[in-house]
């Protein structure tokens, strides 16, 4: 259900749509690209629920012009997409692969022709397999490889792209990838997950420094995107309150504090002391991680309510590293096709919390959207009122947060079209455009028309 009150966003508020390389590009062997951890992982039986991979995905590599037309049809001014590291540096080190870069130059040309501003993410989970073979994110050397890659790409594209995000959701890379093995590279080792999280953050900081050094006077903007949750205790019982503190610590503050305050929270370090010491955090690391950034991206989908369990699960059984004795408690909100509870006010609370607890920084919602089991009707159309309701509710929450003083500058719907939803393959549809994976036909859903109207008018109808 949508609220009837008209809601307007200020002039200059950015409207966008987001995607990620491995989820859409396909063409995994084209022009010198080499395997990423997701190629390897998705080809191992049992890792992706429908047995699929990103081999073809949305075939965006070949159909990017059609896709840019779709983006233009959405009326959005900005397109957030990620660069595939294994296209640009196929083995994660060495010179930039010109053929891979040419693809992104063609894409940038097409966006420019339509007046769409590019917003680039350097890393959305497709680590070159060669770097994983050398230790992956738990190994410190990957930090330097990432900073080199980021700087080399920035040298080539800084005059074409103004907005640079280093990492998308390091929480997922570290905890899903190395903690519970739900994502590539499929490792179940909480200690490795914590080391990976630190190295991801350090890679971010070094990359920001490296890029700034290329263009010291630039007005280009640098930032990072975090997936954050408003975490609440399910009851006022002390064990549940402490569970909420710990989950908030490992999920939110473990990333926000080093980035924005220059240190890891003491309580989080204490919580994970049984899993790892701090030897992997070397002198100077926290200063590097806190390299000044210009914007913070936030991805929000669902709230988190937790309680302490009666007995703890085994290590590696939860993405909340060290919180094996904590479980989430459904609140009875409607759910998406992912089973994620829908609570738009969670986004408002999250934004307000960032304003209250951290130094001022311009915020962007860099992802928000829902999976729906969409179907094509007899007339070839896809009606997704649930998604419209979701987007409307969350945009109202954004506007409310802005009314409460939050410096929110823009919003990106996740995602342009249905694509490879990681360990769920193509079984979950998040797009505002429907993708028929067998024909590659794209059908804008009713949410696409709705979102286009919002983006063009700056107003919720
Ligand atoms: O599809 C993902 C995206 O790659 C990262 N953020 C969450 C989305 C939905 O799961």
TrEMBL record:
Keywords assigned by UniProt, alphabetized: Carbohydrate metabolism, Cellulose degradation, Glycosidase, Hydrolase, Polysaccharide degradation
InterPro entries: GH, GH_1_N_CS, Glyco_hydro_1, Glyco_hydro_1_AS, Glyco_hydro_1_beta-glucosidase
PROSITE patterns (alphabetical): GLYCOSYL_HYDROL_F1_1 (PS00572), GLYCOSYL_HYDROL_F1_2 (PS00653)
Catalytic activity, as annotated: Hydrolysis of terminal, non-reducing beta-D-glucosyl residues with release of beta-D-glucose
Entry GO MF terms: beta-glucosidase activity
Domain of life from the UniProt record: Bacteria
Known EC number: 3.2.1.21
Residues the entry annotates as binding substrate: 23, 124, 168, 301, 414, 421-422
Main EC class the enzyme belongs to: hydrolase
Pfam families associated with the record: Glyco_hydro_1 (PF00232)
Alphabetized SUPFAM superfamilies for the sequence: (Trans)glycosidases
Signal sequence segment: none
GO cellular component: cytosol
Family assignment from sequence similarity: Belongs to the glycosyl hydrolase 1 family.
Cited PANTHER family: GLYCOSYL HYDROLASE, LP05116P
Protein name: Beta-glucosidase
Organism for this UniProt entry: Actinopolymorpha cephalotaxi
